[in-house]
Amino acid sequence: MKFVNEYRDADAVQHYARAIAQITTRPWTIMEICGGQTHTIVKFGLDQLLPPAITLIHGPGCPVCVTPVEVIDQAIAIASLPNVILCSFGDMLRVPGSETDLLTVKAIGGDIRIVYSPLDVLRIAQAHPTQSVVFFAVGFETTAPATAMLVHQAQQQGRMNVSLLVAHVLVPPAIEAILSSPHNQVQGFLAAGHVCTVMGYSDYLPIAQKYQVPIIVTGFEPLDILQGIYLCIQQLEAGRSQVENQYTRSVRPSGSAEAQRLIHDVFAIAPREWRGMGTIPDSGLILRDAYAAFDATQRFNMPIHHAVESAECISGWILQGVKKPYDCDAFGTRCTPEHPLGAPMVSSEGACAAYYRYRQSRERVYE
Amino acid sequence: MMEQNMEPTCPIPMQQYPHILLAHGGGGKLSHQLLEQIVIPTFNNATLNVRHDAASLVIKGQSLAFTTDSYVVHPLFFPGGDIGSLAVNGTVNDLAMVGARPLYLSVALILEEGLPIETLWRVVQSMQWAAQNAKVQIVTGDTKVVDRGRGDGIFINTTGVGIIEHTQTIAPQQVQPGDVIIVNGDLGRHGMAIMAVREGLEFETTIESDSAPLADLVLQLLAADIEIHCLRDLTRGGLASALNEIAQVAGVDIAIAESQIPVQEDVQGACEILGLDPLYVANEGRFVTFVPSKDAERTLEIMRSHNSLSLTCQPCIIGFVKRTGSGLVTMQSRIGPQRIVDMLSGEQLPRIC
Question: Any idea what the CATH number is for the domain that residue B103 is in?
Fold first, then answer.
């Protein structure tokens, strides 16, 4: 298939894998930020092609995984109310809240709809004018412009039966949180190409300089990722720490001005809790006062309840890249995609689900 | 008060769902759990325990195949078929998967109050056409009407009876190390055709369902004395779930190669956009055949020359049975490394980004 197969070409992949091995003289640890990249790495077995000196660890770039359980509980509470239609992206439905999940709420009568674009919510709101239509707005900078467009259009059209439960998060503050952690092992980053398509990469320049780490803006196909790793190793071996753009076919340095204007118009930046990582300053988006009427937490008077957590799941360590899914005692036994203990086992972008689906154990598949 | 937990943690798990979820009907692990925990232990008998698409019965010396299936597809009409032809082909195919010659079907229609008679007429006509095409007769049936809002237009159940004229045992338990795995055409078209219509997704081309009767082709393979160890149609849960089920029941490990698995470009593109994997997407005219390697080439030839195959749907060898084992299915990715192909877990849910 055009624009896909070229980036999955076996010969080119082997060529890049050899090139990486040739320039690697020491052990290096690289984190790919985005869950989409993790999925590609595990699905295609890219890590098996790398020299043993390179360790890839999987970052917190899975929006499903980092949405705090308290917010999922809010979504569940809202979806359980009469006369409400909750709209969500598909993979949020299976993430366990503290007592149940959205799929169960749907099974016992909650009106929950899977949408592909936030703008689908407007159509649903128009078709059901007497019902309250709530969008569970989850995602990084990639999906934020479309959410902002929903708010913008809902206001323009006076569609006041629309509201939003906003849980958008921002990538650069999370990278800083990882780098400033005493547990940090990451020496270089593959930044998420689609986030940078929207935002550009100027925010990463001060991070690379302050923490002396190379940051490579990287795409999502096998060749993108291997080229990103190659550029990162090249910098690490040369002692450089710059921001480089591998994903030039999509990312411009300053990103999309229009998308950024939309985000800025609708959202303000605020501290945000990340599941497994705690509260990170300036890492979340909230609706500006001018759009407060669309805030579902206010409309439904939903206070945040602190949720009781189980100590068994180590998703926090996994999302910070300190541990691998294999290091968890529950992995593949008490924690599986049917009965996830934690969010990384739910989304196909979650590190645990990717490992479970494609590996299951450290040794098994390599025979 | 609870002490502040210093380690980052996750919420308490849901271990068992107390209600039926849509995913329990998805053909993946939750469907499997329903069968293994509730249905099979309750009705427990030797015929059922074979876990095949159709039951094989011997009545006064005559071998018969017997199966049933219900059809709840929405929309009722989709590119490449409709609920009527699907209800005939699906049951015919379940009979074909034990190598039977399908003979008779029953049809039970559950109609929703308010359904246009015109719609029913079109569906029934389509069933009759499909029955003729598959060389079966619809010989008995039933009609019920439910209140508006308690059905989805039409639900159809069909039950089928066929005669088993061969002496082979075609069942997952017959699968052996060294068997070659052949699929009769490209994957994923039915599921993506339905999803494109249901979700209002517009692609450059219209993806058509692969819905088709398979009994004729299977009977040709049997007539040519192909030693067939197992057949399985690739409906709900797709190729991945079918191979996992067979591997588990047979106690073998299976290896397939991604580069050998035929997927048309339009289906591949739609899957890429939605974040779905064609290995898990439903088909309605595709099946896998397990044969010893000596018969692989002849199987391919017969499939190629079978007149219902179009140019775009060529049969392929997609893998082989590696050894006796714990039921592991692995795939060599297009670029070389191996990975596990697991059974579908719940519904395939589109990704966020």
Answer: 3.30.1330.10
